[in-house]
Design a protein that fits this description.
Blueprint lengths: L11 H15 L22 E8 L2 E10 L2 E10 L5 E7 L8 H12 L3 E5 L16 H13 L5 E11 L1 H12 L5 E5 L5 H13 L3 H5 L5 H16 L7 H6 L13 E6 L7 H13 L5 E5 L21 H4 L5 E6 L9 H19 L1
Length: 362
């Protein structure tokens, strides 16, 4: 899954300004009264269980359970202590194995900026009931978590953002299509067409992994075989055998319904969710009459108007300033893979995400 870390290794002035804006938003600007202290809220009736995991450095981490479609689902909430009406960030993690230490670190860093961060384990993971469905019932789980959190005094129900990476990006995009009261969404390398993803991986395996050879990777065959097996098991067959099952989980076919401002981020060297998945989202939005502003970021983290990934028409202007004016924004990072392992690229992404949040939550 994609992990993004708040830092300043090379984020530059744009990232610093964006993070400052995020701090102001997390503290509840726009008249939300974010700084007022209040006692720790009593458990809402929506929680079946509620346990404080830690309370240190002004940050509270709670583990809660709640109902989603009759299933008991677990989640973690990371928030500043003793506050009211803070911006809620719904973080949807990647993969199918629950929250990682990276997810928790990410959540704490955002909470230190003043946000309430909530992350569901989803069905079939981390002790939650049910089975993994891949971007179907998991969307219900995050929506049910949102409904419960709106009852908490520390959440401003008018300032809600949804962010997700990989599988969580698909969940986030599906939630944004379904729930227009989400103010802003960020999709980090999320699959948008599961059948196309299956067919791409199958083709790569059959042809000896040409894409991975092109970018200098030698570990893709086993990775793709494992993912193909997971998809067949989880979906009950191949796309040819159960096409509707794959289509039901693919938000690309419903992007014409998207009303929530959304930032899409993808790397050209992604071998888990290939770039074609992002290109399909850009094409679907364009076909719906809502073409996103698009930027290509080169390996030196500069805007490249002549980039050729996912077509053309990339903007030469500053991406940090540009996203402020876009309802939907589409950003490609050249040379970056699924996990954004390059520290400078991670810093650039977190600054960009913060700028987009600032533009659409203020």
């Amino acid at each position: 899954m994609t992990q993004i870390h708040v830092g300043s290794r090379r984020g530059g002035r744009g990232a610093g300004l964006a993070l400052s804006a995020a701090l102001a938003l997390g503290a509840g600007c726009a008249g939300s009264g974010g700084g007022s202290p209040t006692p720790t809220p009593t458990p809402t009736s929506a929680w079946l269980d509620r346990t404080v995991v830690s309370d240190s450095g002004g940050i509270v981490v709670e583990k809660v359970s709640y109902l989603s479609g009759g299933l008991k689902i677990w989640a973690e909430i990371t928030r500043p202590a003793n506050v009211t009406h803070r911006t809620l960030l719904l973080w949807s993690h990647g993969g199918f194995s629950g929250l990682s230490d990276g997810d928790r670190t990410f959540g704490r860093r955002l909470a230190e900026l003043g946000f309430v961060v909530a992350a569901s384990y989803y069905r079939g993971e981390g002790g939650s009931q049910g089975t993994v469905e891949a971007c179907k019932g998991e969307v219900d789980d995050v929506q049910a978590l949102l409904t419960a959190l709106k009852q908490e005094a520390y959440v401003d129900p008018t300032h809600i953002a949804a962010l997700g990476a990989s599988h969580g990006g698909c969940i986030t995009l599906s939630l944004a299509i379904r729930k227009p009261d989400v103010r802003v969404a960020v999709d980090l390398a999320g699959p948008s067409d599961w059948a196309a993803l299956y067919n791409w991986m199958s083709d790569q395996v059959a042809r000896g992994e040409p894409f991975c050879a092109q970018i200098g990777r030698t570990d893709c065959r086993q990775l793709h075989l494992s993912m193909l097996d997971q998809l067949v098991t989880g979906f009950g067959g191949t796309p040819a055998q159960v096409p509707n099952t794959y289509a039901d989980r693919s938000p690309v076919y419903r992007l014409g319904e998207l009303k929530v401002p959304t930032l899409f981020i993808h790397g050209t060297d992604d071998v888990i969710v290939n770039l074609d998945q992002a290109c399909a989202k850009r094409a679907a939005l364009t076909a719906a009459g809502r073409a996103p502003g698009a930027w290509d970021i080169d390996r030196s983290l500069h805007e490249n108007a002549s980039g050729t990934a996912c077509g053309d028409n990339f903007k030469p202007s500053s991406v940090f300033l540009g996203v402020l004016a876009e309802t939907n924004a589409f950003v490609i990072y050249e040379g970056q893979g699924h996990e954004l392992k390059d520290g400078s690229a991670r810093d650039h992404v977190i600054g960009l995400v913060a700028a987009f949040l600032a533009a659409h939550l203020s």
